[in-house]
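Standup, Tuesday
Yesterday: got the pipeline producing structure tokens again.
Today: sanity-check two examples.
Blockers: none.

Example 1:
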Amino acid sequence: MSIPEAKTFWRLLEARVAATPDAPMLIDEHDACISFADYHAAALRAAQALHARGVGPGSRVSFQLPTRISTVVLMGGLARLGAIQNPIVPAYRETETAFCLDETKAQILIVEATGWRLDEGGLRERVGHDFVLLRDRDVGIERAKTDAPAPDPQRLAPLSPPDPLLPAPPVDPAAVRWIYYTSGTTSRPKGARQTDQAVAITAAGLVARHRIGPPDRFGMAFPFTHVGGLINLIATFLRGHCLVLLEAFDAEKATTHFARHGVSVVGGGPVFYAAILAEQRRHPERKVLPAFRIFSGGGAPMNAELHYEVLREMGGRGCLHGFGMTECGIICANDVDDADERLAETEGRPIPGIELRIDRSDGARAEAGEEGEVLLRGPAVCRGYVDAAATAAAFDDEGWFRTGDLGFVDARGYLTITGRRKDVIIRKGENISAVEVEDLLYGHPRVADVAVIGLPDALRGELVCAVVTAMPGLPPIGFDEMVAHFRGARVMAQKIPERLEVVDAIPRNATGKILKQVLKERFAGSVVPSVARA
């Protein structure tokens, strides 16, 4: 597989419309469906409305909208004008949203006409410059009526022929057109500067490794304003398959909606895989997703056993879990033909457009199988951050980006992530990977979800604390049982957690990443009995 020819968003869309204009492109949770030609017309109409509001090449436009057809239409309209887009996940509140607006110097913020949860006054107080607040209806993308079987053609079609005064479509695929903010789970979010070219490379890698084509229906229940939304949008331009959207994830609703529309590929992360698997277990008499082929995602570590559970109970090829981040949406991906051991235990091989290396803690290049920090470079990587200081800290003089993730590459080129550089618990000078401990504990039959954190401890420096949820219908694991489970796995004593906390749910952000800082703040001050260890 080679890197695709560099093209802009708009050129990729036009090529798809020319190839399959009437093929379904988007289906929403109300069963409204539009084709590629419909989408092209709707995006042009949005471009006209936006241009009338002063939006043009280089305009900085933020938007905070749910996963709807209208949101995707807005992205197309802004892309036609060559604006710089800053999609903001709906979970952000006034503080995080204001940070994004401030740093990007956004001139316009677009939100939904009804349902937007933020306080406008509180938001403006936090932003250091003035900006125009528009509602979706102001720019011609108001949501279709929920009782309509399909979007109103008059609402989607241009009100008139394309405005001859519209600027020419952008021509440079390497220009920065998107600013996506990192999840900010441990510090202030950073705005990654993305290009059409970089995102198209990652989209091409995804569809090639997962063999996605026109017959597939791709189920999306994560925020479209995440970089994964753009990757999957451009993927539809490349392959001509259909995206089936859901505004908010609910396992029962997702399986019903996805089954009705023949979804074969479900995107997301391990938290989504596990929830849909649990829904399958609730209905052992039938396949909750009859057309299911694979789970496709990344963004958070996956326990190896989850792949085998999905394989046994849902079929298909199980979990094709990869490695990606806001700065580069798809870094590594497995292939549908890879052995189950690799699907379960590795993140796959780097896609074309990614050069990857592992550096040991002493700065030397790691050998095959040797752990170190993952670095990458290439045209699929973002063009740094909005904050120049953050760019300087993350990229070296040769263009290598330090991911902050720890891992190793085996002799065949497959990457395994072992943890985060900042997710290492240092107990009496011994480095303990939180991910490794999580994987071990997840293997217990009564543990449904797990997060392992380090907590301050006067004796040890840090102690290992396991936070778990119980498998539905089963009693939670006890402390002594947990210790016995680890001892049975024959691991070093330092890796056995000194504390066990059972919770109803483990906090996660909108993309499924565990909010470990929230857990650390919650449990750092409390004292519970623990077992003495070396």
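Example 2:
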Amino acid sequence: MALPLDLRRRTRLPLPVLTALAGAVVLLLCLGVLRAWPTATTVLSNPLFDTYQRLHPRPATEPPVLVVDIDEASITTLGQWPWSRSVIARMVERLQAMGAAAIGFDVVFSEPDRLSLARAVEALRAQGVAIALPPTADQLDSDQVLAGALAAGNTVLGFALTDESTARPPPARAGFAYGGTDPRRYLPHFSGAVSNLDLLQTAAQGAGFFSFTTTDDNIIRTMPLAAVAGTAIYPALAIESLRAALGAKGFMLRGNDASGEGGGGAPGMTGLRVGDLDVPTEPDGRMRLYYSGMPNMTVISAARLLEADAVDRLQPVVEGRIALVGTSAIGLRDIVATPLASATPGVTVHAEIIDQIVAGVFLHEPDWSHGVLLLATLLCGVMLIAVTTRSGALASALLLAGLTSGFVAVSWHAFSAFRVIIDPVGAVATLVLLFLVLTPLRLALENREKRLVKGAFGRYLAPALVERLAREPSALRLGGETRRLTVMFSDIRGFTTLSEGMDPQSLTSLINSFLTPLTDVLLRREATIDKYIGDAIMAFWNAPLDIDRHEEKACRAALDMAKAVEVLNESRNEPIRIGIGLNSGDACVGNLGSAQRFSYSALGDSINLASRIEGLTKLYGVTIAVSDFTRQAVPALAFLEIDNVRVKGRTAPVRLHALMGDETLAGSHAFHDLAARHEAFLSLYRHGAFADASAALQGLRQTAPPQLVGLYSLYAERLSALLADPPGDGWDGVYVAKTK
């Protein structure tokens, strides 16, 4: 049975090995990407941690900050924005009077006030109008009025850092101390700024930028606490307002290579200190925001702040708090998205930063987390590869679900219980990718293997066995193994004489019509057809798959073959006679042959013996001859012992039996009588009582069925020779075959 070359190649690299190699390549590639590019999964991890924040926001506090909101109601009351700077000055004065710890502006005053009366006077004078001003004329310049209000209070003006401008930013008002590498190397850089009027900025006690870190989805998750413009370092509006409230002179930046910080890796920032408050940061100076939603924060409409009785009403909620002035009005375009809200005023984000710093509640991503995740991903990936290569898609899917759930559960527990960031997305994505690659690959290889198995064995095995082999390719162990087989050889008697008078076409038609029904019988009885040798067939049972009761199935196949030949002979003038030999025993079965060509076959002493037995059927005149090794495993069928024969090439004799029929015949009274008289005859023969044996044989020949006529004629000839020339004392009744 020749195997396709593809199947031979497949046997050198089994399916589990191919799948495991593919999985190892995918796993190593994913780990390499995650190691070299830790932010590769940010697009997925950001929404995950947004969900965590929605499920478990930062605990609400009584915040040290409030918001003065330039809202739609204020614009309706006070007029369109921008308002006169004198209105802003009144707001500052009111907040100072109420005892605000500091006042921060999340708005920028970059141009002179177009509503200033001083500008109107100058315009009239330019037209030739003579105007006499009172001694308090300086109060007409609203920018001067606002500058005076800013100078009188603890105020911080915000400005925008941007790469869309090269305008000079305002002078830095707070100093930065640092250890280790100059932070200008790792902090974000901007080319310019949109700044406040110098008059106003000089009057204020602080300056802080309010520019957020941009993201692809425009959700504010981090905020740079410090940034560089030109050669100066600037603080964010929130921490500058906090510094002003605390009365601190500046900030302390901690670098990862400063004394006591551990060092290692690229220079970066680990934290910022303002007053007595420490703020952990990421290496580029960004603070990871942990939102609470600020449910307890006071929000005062700007219009209410300017009402006559505002000081008395609002002082209890303003006193001692940082007031941030910002806007929620839609037209002023300061609406941003956060993990907790799709639209919220930008000023509330700055308020969240102050509240988070004062509360001391931070999200922290440990230095070791990335390495531990890589190691866990490697181990879980190896586990998934091992299961996928050995089990089906369902087991792999269940393991994948368990592993991914485990990663997410650990990540969620770390976040909710310890506020620790452990990003599971890279690990989960790697495992999912492994599953998506390996499962179709394994199925494709299995289908390919099934097709190869069906192609290789479909013409030699029964369809049920081929399906079983396709479902369980591991049962096919090619390459050579020792198994107990039942082997059959069959041949047409007198084929040479039969073929002499036939042309090639007629001979081919005869062979095909003969082999086809016999092949059907063999496949139905779960045989493996090894080869066709002209008119002969070699088949065996119990390889490549285990076959229960293979000895019995072989014997029944032989009986069915004999019946099939009888049916074939009904349409022929000249009947065909066959001989079938069966033997059971150990044999080497597998890929046998040369390096250039080999086939799935069997060899060994048991195979040779089966061939010899088939040859002896002609001598004994029986259709089916079975060795004692096979007969002992099939007690139910009708057997008659033929002889004890020492075949050519074998020292030990083998007892042969003629298979006469199935269990119906075996249970009949006539067969029992025949079998008893037959055994009595053989006993006389083997004990050397040739005269008595001859008499018993005469009785047998008178009632013998047609299948035994040839056998009893052979014994009659032997007995005549033995009576004429008796053997010596060494007689053991064993017949020595003289031919193969």
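Quick observation on example 2: The radius of gyration is 50 Å. Residues 2-11 have pLDDT under 50 and may be disordered.
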